Amino acid sequence: MPTLDDILYRSGDVFLPEPVRNTLEKGVYFDNREALYINGWTGVHFLSGFISGWLYLRYLRNRTNRPTLKDNYYWNLFLLHTLWELWQVFIGMAKPWKLEGASNLIDSILDTGAFMIGAYLATKTEKIEKYLKHTS
Known about the structure:
Mean pLDDT: 75
Oligomer: single chain
Strand order of the largest sheet: 1-2
Helix content: 55-70%
Strand content: 5-15%
Structural class: mainly alpha
């Protein structure tokens, strides 16, 4: 039976099966120091940013009168993703952030960038939906 530590650790990769995790970890690009890299997880961050942004716009922002949720779309999604990255450091899945040596800081910045690009593109789908509704 899995221990609580095992369950917490596996939550860092959203309980994906090992073959899927191994596929996502295959690199697409590595710099010469392997500090900066793009792999399947970068795509997962992009897609999760797009889905989170779309859900936020569709179900949260447009159905509330709270100005905080309406006006701080990017900040709220940035905060959500940063909390996720901190969770991964806390459970031991990611290396702690440092400015030198083996670190997860560059990876976290790249992941957050991919997430926020996905969130940005979600705003474009909202504009396209509005345009299509207006023209039909």
